[in-house]
Specification:
Lycopene_cyclase_dom; transmembrane; two-stranded antiparallel ribbon; globular; isomerase; membrane; two-stranded antiparallel sheet; 6 strands
Amino acid sequence: MTYLEFHLVFILPPLLLLLWTRPRPPRLWAYLLMPLIALLYTTPWDNYLVYRGVWGYPEGRVLLRIGYVPLEEYLFFLLQPLLTGALLLRLAGAPPPGGPGLFRVVGGGFWLLVAALGVMLLALGGEYLYLGLILAYFAPVFVLQWAFGGDLLVAWRKPLLLGTALPTLYLWFTDFYAITREGIWWISKEYTLGLDLAGLPLEEMLFFLFTNLAVVQGLLLAWHPEALRRLK
């Protein structure tokens, strides 16, 4: 199986099904903008990982490369937010009132500590490199999201949890299949801790968790009327 065939089998069918059976998003611009934000934000990070050899792709499994990254990888960064967002539409429901403002402080502070941990792991390098890159690059996004609307996210916790967990579990399965069964891409043992679940590295699991969490939190905030009032 090639990387493009992976998209055709595992990503496009559930995405099209969710879009076909769901009405228009409450704010269509947010749903359509999220993939572009994900692509722009993740592209430098992903190119650096491939450049360092944290992960890579065997010859014959990709069509072409732009920089260090295959075209299909850029396509994935567009499709994943669309898939996760389409599922979130089914789960969100009506926006609840915001909770105590303390959640904004506590949540922002927690993710700031996670970002600091990521920087420390980057300084250590070696087996901590992949984990450090994930924490240091994505935790600052969560700092901003929680400092701005942590109370709204806590109040909307059911779609936050389910909207993150369900696509994450699905992408864990597809990633496991791509790595262990098809060899579409590989993860370096040199830059990972060696902890895995049935052959799926811990860092890969955390990557899908964090990317889905960023999408879900971003969309919930964009769809909440109180968040828009705060921007104004």
